[in-house]
Every structure is written in C-alpha cells, then in structure tokens.
Amino acid sequence: QVQLVESGGGLVQPGGSLRLSCAASGIPLEYYAIGWFRQAPGKERERVSCINADDGSTNYADSVKGRFTISRDNAKNTVYLQMNSLKPEDTAVYYCYLSDYGGRNYWGQGTQGTVSS
User: Fold this and answer.
1) Beta strand 46-51 with 105-107: parallel, antiparallel or unpaired?
2) How confident is the prediction along the chain (117 residues), in pLDDT tens digits per residue?
C-alpha cells in the first residue's frame, strides 16, 4: 500500500524558514516525479514545486522561486521542501503528490504551515 506522509509544518514568523518532509512507503520515490502543492483557505490547490525522477531537474511556481528548494534523498525515500524567507501569503496546507505509471494519484494528508507575527 502506497502512503505519503508529510511533516515539518508549524508556525513561523515572516522571514523565517520551514523544512517540509514527504516520506513514502510502498513505493520507491526515486523512480517518480514528486510534486509539492499547497492550498490556502478559500483558494484552489496550487503546485509549488516539482522534482523529476530521471535527471533530478526541478521547477517552481513564480511566487516561490528563489525562496523554496525541493530535493530528494533516495536512501531515505523522502522528498523535502526547504522554505526560506517565508511570507504570510505562504500560509497554507502543504501536500506532496505522486502519480505512478499506471495513472494512479497519491496524496499525503498535508501539513500546515503558518507564517504570522
């Protein structure tokens, strides 16, 4: 059974940092592209970042470019999202996502990140 579990959320002041983790079981993450999404209250879920499997290339939403970094540790079967210079508008529930080669989609339960003074 495939399971994605996010952790690392919390409350941080503007300008602070959080490091989110997405730990997988039942599937080797190294063979799949992994995405981080977020959903703020009253807003649609949006993609924040993605890391590809084949070459490890990454991409970011314009709103987080230069502040967030996605990475993976295949030995730990975990993907990370380092979030620096956080702003109140980064407040959201953050989810990791994977789509396997059979077209099945997997989401974690989410982790809340709150940026507030």
Assistant:
1) unpaired
2) 999 999 999 999 999 999 999 999 999 999 999 999 999 999 999 999 999 998 889 999 999 999 999 999 999 999 999 999 999 999 999 999 999 988 899 999 999 999 999
- Single out the residue of 76, 78, 79 nearest to residue 68, CA to CA: 79
Distance, in Å, from the CA atom of 50 to the CA atom of 56, rounded to the nearest integer, reads: 9
Gyration radius of the chain over CA positions:
14
Picking from 49, 111, 117, 64, the residue whose alpha carbon sits closest to that of residue 88 is 117
Distance CA 4, CA 10 (A): 18
CA distance 90 to 76: 27
Structure token pair of residue 12: 């941080």
> What tokens appear for 6 in the block?
């996010």
Contact status, residue 90 vs residue 81, Cβ threshold 8 Å: no
DSSP state of 116: -
